[in-house]
Specification:
By secondary structure, the protein is an all-alpha fold. Helices cover 75% and strands 0% of the residues. α5 (82-99) crosses α6 (101-108).
């Protein structure tokens, strides 16, 4: 074992990695700070030097996972067609899910009842919706059947897409023999049939 002392940031990352494993194994309610400390190879007082409570630790981990998700499927730098935009982002999201199943469950599963954690959970959900809404904003025009402000239209479409992605991801966890690319194609098919009608240029199609 090296005698080199960890920096505060390195120790923090070590703790968060250990906490992710513990929460994955036992869930939030049953997990204990002593168990996290043991998994991280530190004492419980050292753990409390970095995180004031289990709720603080979980909320910090949740925010880290949200950042990872959003960084992984941020909007493309170049303008692309609506279908390519949808398909590429769906593919990026499911690739992230495949390698970060715990994180996805933390972000989109049922939030623990602790107020600090519940608030962090709500912030994560809001950021995911805002990220998806930003993708819809790249579509120049929406042909909707009702009059509604564009920002609110982007938001409700983002919420609908997020719900569909979550439902399919949950099904996929129970059917892991299905290859990821099949899940991507099925999700794109489901979402695109509706989006095609509201994103195509009707005037050009006439």
């Amino acid at each position: 074992m090296s005698g080199k002392r960890m920096s505060k940031q390195q120790r923090r990352e070590q703790i968060l990695a250990a906490a992710a494993e513990v929460f994955a194994t036992t869930g939030y309610a049953a997990a204990g700070m002593r168990e996290v400390a043991t998994r991280a190879g530190i004492s419980t007082p050292v753990l409390y030097d970095h995180f004031a409570s289990k709720a603080d630790l979980y909320a910090t981990l949740l925010e880290q996972q949200v950042n990872s998700l959003i960084d992984d499927w941020s909007a493309p730098t170049e303008r692309v067609g609506a279908y390519d935009l949808l398909h590429d982002r769906v593919r990026a999201i499911y690739a992230w899910i495949e390698h970060n199943e715990l994180a996805w469950r933390m972000i989109f599963g049922e939030a623990p009842s602790d107020e600090v954690v519940a608030q962090a959970h709500q912030r994560g959900q809001k950021r995911a919706t805002e990220q998806l809404a930003g993708l819809f904003r790249l579509v120049p025009r929406l042909n909707l059947s009702v009059e509604i402000e564009r920002d609110r239209a982007d938001e409700v479409l983002a919420e609908a897409a997020k719900s569909a992605l979550n439902a399919i991801a949950t099904w996929w966890w129970r059917n892991r023999d299905i290859p990821r690319e099949h899940i991507v194609a099925l999700t794109a098919d489901l979402l695109w049939r509706g989006l095609r009608e509201i994103t195509e240029n009707r005037e050009d199609a006439q």
